[in-house]
Every structure is written in structure tokens, then in C-alpha cells.
């Protein structure tokens, strides 16, 4: 199966999204990797770095529906999934679908809602099905969750349980643009080239139709990954369970995620095969949110990113 169509669409999607999202090329690439592997992403960044605009733009570029939920402490599970309401005229219950019935769902500040509400997304993320009053309702085939977190404000928040974090394929960190990029953004503000104006004005082109996305995802299996590299990748994940500073390492789902992410990374680079650099590039986004450090090492200021870098340096790269 040829991957030319996949690589062409990825390049177009990256280019169209870049018209609106300034100075966030690595972020755009990771978001596309999550979408084209059929997975979900956790986005972390301070307010104002275009987290919501990123997902809205990707939905436009890929021809998918978009919905946003603002998570708050009083949000209830039924506010996400929907509920059955009695219709007096028809003398029967009818389903009022919640915002989860969409293709691209932005769960904004997901850690502001209590665990009961956060768990309403667990079944949807894993099985793409929602159960309401004991009846299963399928979600769209392109259902993708982008959940956002503020990395500096934790007052009044509820940490995500490990089972839920493990269902996010990637953790995407969005930082402020550099000076030149922020200068470009400032110059475009209040003009027809402003990011929101470009998106609203139709300057961003839709590159595929929603029904094409599944076919393109299947083409990822044609990206070759050698057995030696699969072994290298497995050794990286297994090393997280044995590192002296790690209390809880990554599980087998992380291994699967890293294989899919490396293949998509290769396709984004226009390659038909996975290289060790593709695995190294995706190791931190895939593993960062899955590792729990031992308290004594956290107190010393050790970061998960440093642990991942140590592991990458320790494991020999196959030739």
C-alpha cells in the first residue's frame, strides 16, 4: 500500500494549520500524530497560547465537527454525555445528546472537574461508545479528545487518575512563541491576517473529508519499522519500570503508542520507514505523563524529561 497520499495530506494539513497557529510547528505535528493514529492528546500550557484555536483549526482543516466543554467543579457527567428527557407530546423518552457526540472534543481545563465527571470520558476515549441509561450509543469514528491543563495553577483542581492519563497517547506542551514569532502575531492583530479572522474568513482550506481519515490511518501500517527498532523501542519503555527514580513506569499501552507515534512521525517527515530519531523524538511526549517519580527524587528537583533523556542515553541504538 502506498503512503504517498498520507504524506501529502499530512503536509497540507500542517501547512494550512500553520497559517493560523504561529510559532508552534512541533505542537501541530504532535497533534496531527494523535489524530492520524486515532488517539487522544493532553495539551498543557499557560492561558493564551492558542490551545483552543489549535483544535478548532485542525477540525476545520480535516473537515471534522468540533465541540468544547469547559470543565468546572459543578460539571456533571450528564452534562458531557447527555441524558434521556421525557417528551410530553410523544409520550416517550428521547435522547438529548451531550457535546461528547462530536469528532474533535476539546475538554478545557479537564482537571477542574472532580473524578466522577472526568470518568465520564473514560469509556468514550477507550471504546468510542457512551452508555446512557444502560443503552450504548456509538460515537463518530473520528472521535478525538484534546484535554487541556494549566501547568502553573493547581488550586481547586483534581489531578487526573493514572488510568485516565494512560489513555492519552501524547502529552503536548505548548509554550509561548519566541520574539520574532510573537512580533509577527502582534503585527497581524486587528488586521485581516489575524489568526481568528483567517479561520473565520475561510482562508484555511479543508484538505480531506471526514470519511477519508480512516483510510489514511490504515496507510500508517505500510510505514516500515525494523525488528531491531521494535526491540529498541520496547527496551526504552521497559527501562522506565526499572529506573531507580521511577515509582511507576510506563505500561504496555505506552509501547503500542510509541510504535504508532514513531510511524506517524516518519510519515510527517516524508519517510517510508521509521528511524531511531523518530523513536527518540516521540519518546518524551509518549512517556512523560505516564511516569511517576519517587518522592525523594521529586524533592531534589528531578524532572520526568531528565529521566527519559537518561534512559535514551543508556540504551544502545541498533545499527
Task: Map the helices and strands.
Elements: H1 4-18, H2 25-36, E1 41-44, H3 51-61, E2 66-70, H4 77-81, E3 82-87, E4 92-97, E5 104-108, H5 115-118, H6 122-127, E6 129-132, E7 135-138, E8 144-149, H7 162-165, E9 170-173, H8 179-188, H9 195-200, H10 210-218, H11 227-239, E10 246-248, H12 252-268, H13 276-287, E11 292-293, H14 295-299, H15 304-314
Parallel strand pairs: 1-8, 1-9, 2-5, 5-8
Antiparallel strand pairs: 3-4, 6-7, 10-11
Helix pairs in contact: 1-2, 2-12, 11-12, 11-13, 12-13, 13-15
Please tell me about this protein's structure.
The chain has 319 residues and is α/β, with parallel strands linked by helices. The chain folds into two domains: 22-208, Rossmann fold, CATH 3.40.50.300; 223-319, Orthogonal Bundle (Helicase, Ruva Protein, domain 3), CATH 1.10.8. 44% of the residues lie in helices and 15% in strands. It has 15 helices and eleven strands. It has helices spanning 4-18, 25-36, 51-61, 77-81, 115-118, 122-127, 162-165, 179-188, 195-200, 210-218, 227-239, 252-268, 276-287, 295-299, 304-314, and strands spanning 41-44, 66-70, 82-87, 92-97, 104-108, 129-132, 135-138, 144-149, 170-173, 246-248, 292-293. The strands form four sheets. Strands 2-5-8-1-9 form a five-stranded parallel sheet. Strands 3-4 form a two-stranded antiparallel ribbon. The protein is globular, with a radius of gyration of 20 Å. The two termini are 26 Å apart.
Amino acid at each position: 500500500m502506498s503512503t504517498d497520499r498520507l504524506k501529502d495530506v499530512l503536509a497540507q494539513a500542517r501547512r494550512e494549520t500553520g497559517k493560523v497557529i504561529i510559532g508552534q510547528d512541533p505542537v501541530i505535528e504532535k497533534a496531527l500524530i494523535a489524530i492520524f493514529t486515532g488517539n487522544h492528546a493532553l495539551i498543557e500550557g499557560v492561558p493564551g497560547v492558542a490551545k483552543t484555536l489549535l483544535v478548532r483549526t485542525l477540525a476545520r482543516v480535516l473537515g471534522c465537527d468540533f465541540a468544547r466543554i469547559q470543565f468546572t467543579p459543578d460539571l456533571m457527567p450528564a452534562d458531557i454525555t447527555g441524558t434521556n428527557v421525557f417528551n410530553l407530546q410523544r409520550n416517550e423518552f428521547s435522547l438529548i445528546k451531550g457535546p461528547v457526540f462530536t469528532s474533535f472534543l476539546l475538554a478545557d481545563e479537564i482537571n477542574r472537574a472532580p473524578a466522577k465527571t472526568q470518568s465520564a470520558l473514560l469509556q468514550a476515549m477507550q471504546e468510542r461508545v457512551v452508555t446512557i441509561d444502560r443503552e450504548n450509543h456509538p460515537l463518530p469514528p473520528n472521535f478525538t479528545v484534546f484535554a487541556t491543563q494549566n501547568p502553573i495553577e493547581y488550586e481547586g483542581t483534581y489531578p487526573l487518575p493514572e488510568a485516565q492519563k494512560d489513555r492519552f497517547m501524547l502529552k503536548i506542551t505548548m509554550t509561548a512563541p519566541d520574539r520574532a514569532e510573537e512580533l509577527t502575531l502582534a503585527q497581524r492583530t486587528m488586521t485581516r491576517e489575524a489568526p481568528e479572522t483567517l479561520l473565520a474568513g475561510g482562508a484555511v482550506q479543508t484538505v480531506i473529508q471526514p470519511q477519508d481519515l480512516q483510510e489514511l490511518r490504515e496507510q500508517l501500517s505500510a510505514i516500515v519499522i525494523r525488528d531491531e527498532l521494535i526491540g529498541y523501542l520496547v527496551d526504552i519503555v521497559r527501562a522506565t519500570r526499572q529506573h531507580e527514580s521511577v515509582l511507576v513506569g510506563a505500561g504496555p499501552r505506552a509501547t503500542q503508542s510509541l510504535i504508532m507515534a514513531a510511524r506517524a512521525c516518519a510519515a510527517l517527515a516524508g519517510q517510508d520507514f521509521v528511524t531511531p530519531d523518530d523513536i527518540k523524538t516521540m519518546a518524551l511526549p509518549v512517556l512523560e505523563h505516564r511516569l511517576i517519580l519517587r518522592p525523594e527524587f521529586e524533592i531534589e528537583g528531578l524532572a520526568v524529561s531528565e529521566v527519559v533523556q537518561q534512559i535514551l542515553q543508556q540504551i544502545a541504538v541498533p545499527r
